[in-house]
Amino acid sequence: MCGISVVISENRQIVEKSLDTMVRSQIHRGPDAHMQLIYKANDKTFVGMGHNRLSIIDLSTNGNQPMESWDNRFSVVLNGEIYNYIELANELKLYQKNQSRSMSDTRVFIEAFAEWGLDTFKKLRGMWAAVIFDKQTGQIILSRDRFGIKPLYLFYDTSCLYIASEIKAIILAHGRKLNINRNAAVRYITYGLLNTDQETFFKGIRAFEPASFSVIDLNCNYKTYTTKFWSLPSNSNTSNSAYAAEELQQKLVESVSLHLRSDVPIGFLLSGGLDSSAILGFSKNFLSSSQQVAFSVVSNEKSLDESYYIDEMAQFAKIKSLKYNVSNNPEHLLNTITEASWANDQPLCALSDVSHLMLMRQAKNKKIKVLLSGQGSDEQFGGYNKFFYFFIFELIRNMRLLMAAKITFLSLIRSNILSEFKLGEAIRYMGSARLPAAGLIHPINTEMRNEQIGLGKSYADREQRDLFSLSLPALLHYEDRMSMWNSVEVRLPFLDHYLVEFALSLPAQAKFGCGRSKSILRKSLRGVIPDSIRLRRDKKGFGIPESQWASTLFRPTFEKMLRNEMRSSSLKILTQDGVRLAYKNFLQGKAIPNGRQMMRVLLLERFLERFSEHIIEA
User: Fold this and answer.
1) CB of 372 within 8 A of CB of 266?
2) CA 502/CA 505 separation, integer angstroms
3) Domains in the chain, please, with CATH?
4) pLDDT tens readout for residues 450-508
């Protein structure tokens, strides 16, 4: 929805200059309006609040920010959407007070805070990052949604506190070079992990923790306390399968209907898989199909292409489908990595992130400001193949051998999970995750921590770790950056917290009971999507043949990179000789490293090159 910029300092001139830089650097997040206000917190402290607005709910200037509460006590900058703003407004009787039916969700947010204070955050359904200034107490309040869908970063130096939606805004406003976080870079190369905690690729800049709020007292030497306002309930659901599937469908209908609240046109990301099709399937009951459009990534590689299922779902929902074919111009994807890296503020997860950026550009060109996505379902319903193996392992560990055998047999008949087994992925989860990076990592980094990405204490434990650390946060990061770079907001109905609480309360058997992943979700989708999609055996997603391209189309790029001194080598993250040997082994077809690992080296290098003027040399 927007971009947040906040600068707090005793030097008003620094506040004015830094705030202007931050707002200008985030114009892509909100091109419809931008505004800056500077407040005096006490005799010596100034608070600058800036905002870039992407107008989605209440398109009038009444929705511009920073926004002050009607009692003039609070000022807020908010990024995101509060989907239950109508219900909250009714509870607060705001429509009677305002004598108007037009009201932005930000207005409801700040009036709710004026009424309920810190208890407000528990009542919200949505995605948000917010900074509130209490003019009466001189306190700053920060809050971020339960899953960290919307970003928020902080950086302290000797004279300033910077708060922003994007890291680059802080870097540019700060104006001085920062040290690279080698720990984050090594974790990325070794495990392919990003955003597993609050660290970023720049030392000193940290992400604000999801599902939390902080109160910073500017009158007491910035004394801060932070509190979690939400955590996952520990209850388990013992409902029978039919009832649970019906309840799941009801929760999906409710979530999708809330996520469709908008005063601008809405589109859909459609991969042809179960999750994106489910969102579109439920949405078609609320929207006029003649006005809707879906955006999809396709490929000439048959093993990766989803065109058949995309077309089938689009025809079923009676909407237009626009496709971006990654095979038409791979060189363009390669040449766009640098731009995407700047947008992303960290190395890309994979080359598919670039195709996502291009897809968002298509949406922008079609004047679509809001897209609904199926992101977040895989982590809840066992959508990745690895979850099937985690489940079978747990059954064996608990001596439920007959059940393990039964589920395995059903899987052979009804899905491709076992036939898609990959040894490299299995090694990754069996405690040998350092093998792919052997010889690549600079010796100075050998003492850095190991990441525990293996089987976990239980299936439920491993599921939650993917949702809150190992998988989803990185996906949310690039989803936000690639979309907002093009002034497009992506909404995620599967991440309504009531839906997540229900999904994670279900036993693992409900998700694999018939030998397929997402068993209960498939049951809940009867009649909502075509059975050819609902009962699919395989899973593809937005695929790009990275391994093939790394050894063919992109080979000259790799060879050029290896001839010159690599930024990752000069910064003591990787060793140049190690990378040369790894690429040679890859070209010879050795199992380690694979194409995805080599592509990560290239993506890291492009990121470091783009941010080089902001990084302190080793």
Assistant:
1) yes
2) 5
3) 2-228 (3.60.20.10), 241-381+471-534 (3.40.50.620), 385-445 (no CATH), 546-614 (no CATH)
4) 666 767 789 999 999 999 999 999 999 999 999 999 999 999 999 999 999 999 999 99
